[in-house]
Design goal:
Keywords: Membrane, Transmembrane, Transmembrane helix. By secondary structure, the protein is mostly helical. It has helices at 2-11, 13-39.
Length: 40
Amino acid sequence: MMSQIKTAIRNSQSTLVQDAIGAAALVVMMIVALHIPGLA
């Protein structure tokens, strides 16, 4: 089981980085969108 998880992570490492960057971008956009009404 652990070896399968390690193999899956090793094989999809580049997409994991891309997914993490995308998730971080979504979090930033959500924070900005929630603060926009307070600026007006």
